[in-house]
Write a structure and sequence with these properties.
The protein has about 270 residues and is an all-beta fold. The chain is built from 1 helix and 19 strands. Strands 5-6-7-8-19-16-15-10-13 form a 9-stranded antiparallel sheet, with no helix packed on it. β7 and β8 form a beta hairpin. The protein is globular. The relative contact order is 0.17. Bound molecules: 6-O-phosphono-beta-D-glucopyranose. The site of 6-O-phosphono-beta-D-glucopyranose has 9 residues, from β17.
Length: about 270
């Protein structure tokens, strides 16, 4: 069993352990909260010490699933930030245990919202082994083309954000803190202030250099979103301690430019964490 007591007695939790790794997953949002590969016994994910587990609001940390939009709802006021599947219960449809890899398949209680124009099937496949491999498949069930956005909004655990350097984030980005202005990614990517950037950076492996190294691979994305709220925003977020920003960085495998799916067509968005 998992020897991490942070999540003990919380509702809707699953723990998985095999010879290669351990993970904790909340059925609320099908959200992975912890991943520790055994070869180095180091926690890859960050969960806010003041995260709320009331089954109402999304859990601040781990890997929230943002879908079928990223950020504000397309019809303003008609849906929560980052979509409606990170704050509902998902069902475990299948579990396949092998000594070195465990596969879990989840589906949300309700992926369709016909009022908002989404009729889809959504499936999340999580593989826990030496790496954590998380795969979100969207299938358009309507008889017209649909457009969606999504993110595997991973919160990575870092020892101190001021020591973090990212590798592999290149090209231009939209600065969400400056009217979505297009800017050039710095050659040396470090953190000294709030960052909220949509990098048009498809399928680019990213390395988070901290005291240790965490590798993030992305498949099927059109963007990588990098987010750190820094001190002022941490203080404003009720489910984050004032200094919470110091120990996390979000590297989000995302679709932000609107991906079109023909009827019955499927698309996979994948993030691999090592
Ligand atoms: C990031 C966005 O993905 O998520 C930020 O780029 C946003 O703008 C952050 O503040 C957190 O969003 P939320 O809804 O989980 O507080």
């Amino acid at each position: 069993m998992h020897n991490d007591n942070r999540f003990i007695s919380l509702p809707h939790l699953m723990e998985v352990e095999n010879s290669q790794g351990r993970a904790v997953i909340s059925l609320f949002g099908a959200q992975v909260l912890s991943f520790v590969p055994k070869h180095d016994a180091r926690e890859r994910l960050w969960v806010s010490p003041t995260a709320v587990f009331d089954g109402q609001i999304p859990i601040r940390g781990g890997i929230p699933i943002c879908w079928p939009w990223f950020g504000k709802a397309p019809i303003e006021e008609k849906g929560p930030n980052h979509g409606y599947v990170r704050n509902q219960l998902w069902t475990l449809k299948h579990c396949d245990y092998h000594e070195d890899n465990t596969q879990l398949i989840f589906e949300p209680a309700n992926a369709s919202d016909t009022q908002l124009g989404y009729k889809a099937n959504l499936q999340l496949i999580i593989n826990i082994g030496r790496a954590l491999n998380i795969e979100l498949t969207t299938t358009n069930l309507s008889d017209t083309t649909c457009t969606y956005n999504a993110a595997l909004h991973s919160y990575f655990n870092v020892s101190n954000i001021e020591n973090v350097q990212l590798e592999g984030v290149v090209g231009e980005y939209f600065d969400q803190l400056d009217n979505h202005c297009v800017k050039t990614t710095p050659l040396i990517y470090r953190f000294t202030q709030e960052v909220d950037r949509i990098h048009l950076c498809p399928e680019q492996p990213i390395v988070i250099n901290d005291e240790f190294v965490t590798r993030v691979k992305s498949i099927g994305n059109d963007s990588i979103v990098i987010w750190n709220p820094w001190i002022t925003k941490s203080k404003q977020l009720k489910d984050m301690p004032d200094n919470g920003y110091k120990h996390m960085v979000c590297v989000e495998t995302s679709i932000t430019q609107g991906l079109q799916l023909a009827p019955e067509q499927s698309h996979k968005l994948v993030q691999v964490i090592e």
